[in-house]
Design brief:
Blueprint: E1 4-18, H1 28-37, H2 39-43, E2 53-67, E3 71-75, H3 82-89, E4 97-102, E5 106-109, H4 122-132, H5 137-151, H6 166-179, E6 184-187, H7 196-211, E7 216-220, H8 224-230, E8 233-238, E9 241-247, H9 248-258, E10 265-267, E11 280-288, E12 297-299, E13 304-312, E14 316-317, E15 320-327, E16 332-337, E17 347-348, E18 351-359, E19 367-377, E20 381-395
Helix pairs in contact: 4-5, 5-6
Length: 420
C-alpha cells in the first residue's frame, strides 16, 4: 500500500491581471468630469468595450509526490508561486488545470490569523478551528491546555482576537495548527512575524510532529537556515515551475549560487521594473574593494564596502537601508542598518542616493557570503526587500594560517612571564 499523502500532477494556476490606470486619489469633481467626457462616445456607440488585461500563470505544470512523515521545504524568490501552491494544497483556491490528491486532514497557517474570527475570543477560536478541522469537542478539550501553553496567550484567552497583535495571532494560529490531530501541516513564511525564540520553538514542534507522530510538514521560508534545519527534501520553484527538487543540501546550494549575482554588482536598468514600491526603487547593489573597484573577491585582510544605490520617487519620511550577510547555509553572520537621526522630522526628498556600509578587514573568514538588502520606514512601512542578491568570496590571499569559524577577527594577544 502506497504511503504517498500528496500527489500533484501537471498543476497550473492562471490569474487575470487587469491593466487599468490607477490614480492615487480622485475627487468627486474628477469622477463627474470623467463620466461627462465619455458621454459623446457612448452616444455614438463607439465605446471601447474591450477589457485590458493579461494572463499570468502563477504555476505551470508542477508535479511532485510527498510521502507520509516527510518534511518538505518550498523555496524560491517572491512571485515564484510558493503561496499559490500552498493555497491549492489547502483547498483555499482551485487550480486552473492539473490534478491534486491529498490524503488526510490539512491544517494551514498561511497568513496572520488564518481561520480566526476577529469578534470571537482566543478560547472560542480554538474550538472553532478544531471544529472546522473535523474534531470533536472532546478531542479539542484534550489538547486545549497544550495549545494555550504553547501560544503563551493565557492572559488574553478571553479577549477578542481582533485586539491581538500580529505576533500573538501567529502564536495562537500555529499552536492550534500544530496541536490538533490532522495528518498534514502547511506553514508559510508567516512565522517570520514571531520573535526568534518562538520561531525556534515552532521549528522544534514541526520536527516533533513529523518524527514522532508521522505527520507530513510543508514549510515555505526564505530563511535557508530554518529550511536546512527542519526539512530533508526541498522543492525550488521559479516563475511557476519546479526548477529543482531533491535533498536540502543539493537544492539549497544550487539555489543560492544560481539565484545570486556573482560579478559583485547588480544593476536595474532604467525602464526595467526595479525592486520597490511606488515611492521607492532600488537602482543597484555592488561591492567595492579597498581600492574602490567593483569585485566579488575580497582579501580577508582588507576592508570593503557594500554599496546600495536607490531612488526616492515621492517624498518620504526618512527611510532606512538594511543589509544582512549570510553563509551559503543560510546562517546570518551579521546585519546592519543606516543610523538615522529620529529627531529630524524632515522628509527625504525626491532624488537618487547612495548608501555605503564599510566592513573592516580581518573580520570574515575564508568562505562564500550572500547579501540581502532591505529598505523601510522604521516602525511604519516596508519599501523593498531583495534576498541573496550578491555573492562574494573572502579569500586568504597570502595563504596565512586559516582559523576555524565563520568570522576570523584579528584579536590582540599579550604574553608575559609569570612571577610565580
Amino acid at each position: 500500500m502506497s504511503n504517498t499523502v500528496i500527489q500533484v500532477e501537471n498543476l497550473s494556476k492562471k490569474y487575470m491581471i487587469f491593466n487599468e490606470k490607477q490614480e492615487s486619489y480622485k475627487t468627486l469633481r474628477d469622477v463627474i468630469a470623467n463620466r461627462v467626457k465619455f458621454i459623446p462616445t457612448k452616444l455614438r456607440g463607439k465605446e471601447n468595450s474591450q477589457p485590458s488585461y493579461e494572463e499570468f500563470w502563477a504555476l505551470q505544470d508542477v508535479s511532485f509526490e510527498v510521502k507520509q512523515g516527510e518534511r518538505v521545504g518550498i523555496i524560491g524568490r517572491n512571485g515564484a508561486g510558493k503561496s499559490t501552491l500552498l493555497k491549492i494544497l489547502s483547498r483555499i483556491t482551485e487550480p486552473t488545470r492539473g490534478r491534486v490528491n491529498v490524503k488526510g486532514r490539512v491544517a494551514s497557517l498561511l497568513e496572520v490569523g488564518t481561520g480566526f474570527h476577529g469578534e470571537l475570543t482566543g478560547r472560542e477560536n480554538i474550538f472553532l478551528n478544531g471544529a472546522i478541522l473535523g474534531m470533536s469537542k472532546g478531542e479539542i478539550k484534550k489538547k486545549f491546555d497544550e495549545i494555550v501553553a504553547f501560544a503563551e496567550v493565557e492572559k488574553f484567552l478571553d479577549t477578542p482576537v481582533k485586539r491581538y497583535s500580529s505576533g500573538m495571532s501567529v502564536r495562537l494560529g500555529f499552536a492550534v495548527a500544530a496541536h490538533l490531530e490532522q495528518e498534514i501541516l502547511i506553514v508559510d513564511e508567516v512565522l517570520a512575524v514571531g520573535d526568534a525564540a518562538f520561531q525556534k520553538k515552532c521549528l522544534g514542534k514541526m520536527n516533533d510532529v513529523a518524527e514522532n507522530e508521522g505527520r507530513t510538514v510543508f514549510f515555505v521560508s526564505h530563511n535557508m537556515a530554518a529550511i536546512n534545519k527542519l526539512c530533508y527534501n526541498v522543492i525550488w520553484l521559479e516563475r511557476g515551475n519546479v526548477k529543482m527538487a531533491g535533498t536540502r543540501k543539493d537544492v539549497i546550494s544550487l539555489y543560492l549560487t544560481n539565484d545570486t549575482q556573482s560579478s559583485g554588482e547588480c544593476i536595474w536598468e532604467q525602464g526595467i521594473a526595479n525592486p520597490g514600491v511606488r515611492e521607492f526603487k532600488f537602482k543597484a547593489v555592488r561591492i567595492r574593494n579597498n581600492w574602490g573597484h567593483i569585485t566579488n573577491i575580497i582579501d580577508s585582510r582588507e576592508s570593503f564596502k557594500i554599496e546600495i544605490e536607490y531612488k526616492i520617487v515621492e517624498p518620504l519620511p526618512s527611510c532606512q537601508i538594511h543589509i544582512i550577510v549570510t553563509t551559503k547555509e543560510g546562517i546570518t553572520v551579521f546585519s546592519s542598518h543606516e543610523n538615522l537621526d529620529h529627531n529630524d522630522d524632515k522628509k527625504k526628498e525626491v532624488g537618487s542616493f547612495v548608501a555605503q556600509c564599510k566592513i573592516p578587514g580581518g573580520l570574515l573568514n575564508e568562505n562564500s557570503f550572500f547579501i540581502t538588502v532591505y529598505a523601510g520606514i522604521p516602525r511604519i512601512k516596508s519599501l523593498a526587500n531583495i534576498e541573496n542578491i550578491i555573492v562574494f568570496n573572502i579569500k586568504n590571499i597570502d595563504n596565512q594560517q586559516k582559523s576555524s569559524g565563520i568570522i576570523s577577527p584579528y584579536l590582540e594577544w599579550t604574553t608575559s612571564q609569570s612571577v610565580r
